[in-house]
Write a structure and sequence with these properties.
Blueprint: H1 2-27, H2 31-67, H3 74-98, H4 100-104, H5 111-143, H6 147-171, H7 176-179, H8 182-200
Helix pairs in contact: 1-6, 2-3, 2-5, 3-5, 5-6, 5-8, 6-8
């Protein structure tokens, strides 16, 4: 149990470190870009909370299914949770995208800042098409009990993520809306790795 907790702690530390790095890069784009990023982060928290409710639940169910010997039900459970999460997250994301000024007005009363933040909000909302299945699959990998494998998969993805934000934000200094495409880069990476692990990996032999 101590070993599992250690690797989980390392995993969370690395995730937060790269998230901090993004904000550090954006800060060099200017005060407005940083203000937009903080607003979008707060908006994302709403969608993220809903998404992670189903992703975490799926991870727990995967663990229970493996522990009870029903490994044949794991893939169906993952697909089911992706569908349910989509059913709640995507309509919410679509509402945010269709009425961006209404949502952004909750976080700032400055009209010019609201207008400037709209493209970043649209990018964020589109990212949840990938973030939902990516997080469900990632939590499912964690649910198999293979914490080191989960850490290795995320570290690989975080390397890609770090290279991506370093290039487009720190080097190219693109608009802050492009910085939020890093969510697409992360979700594509973790989704591909976790999908193939759950499809080809030896997780079904794991004893929980």
């Amino acid at each position: 149990m101590l070993n599992v907790s250690f690797w989980t702690m390392v995993q969370n530390f690395l995730s937060l470190s790269t998230w901090f790095l993004l904000f550090l890069y954006v800060e060099h784009l200017g005060e407005r870009s940083l203000a937009i990023t903080n607003i979008i982060r707060n908006v994302s928290g709403i969608l993220f909370m809903v998404m992670m409710t189903f992703a975490s639940t799926c991870g727990s169910l995967v663990s229970n299914l493996i522990g009870s010997g029903h490994t044949d039900c794991v893939r169906g459970t993952i697909r089911q949770h992706i569908r349910i999460a989509y059913a709640l997250v995507l309509p919410l994301a679509a509402f945010f995208a269709l009425f961006p000024r209404l949502i952004l007005s909750v976080y700032t009363d400055m009209p010019e800042l609201q207008v400037a933040a709209v493209p970043s909000l649209w990018v964020l909302c589109s990212a949840y098409l990938l973030l939902v299945p990516a997080n469900v699959y990632f939590q499912s990998v964690s649910g198999t009990g293979n914490t080191r494998t989960a850490l290795a998969l995320e570290m690989t993805t975080l390397v890609i993520y770090t290279c991506y934000i370093t290039y487009i934000v720190a080097y190219l200094k693109l608009d802050v809306a492009y910085a939020w495409t890093s969510e697409h880069a992360y979700s594509i990476g973790i989704l591909i790795l976790c999908y193939f692990y759950m499809k080809k990996g030896k997780w079904s032999q794991k004893k929980i």
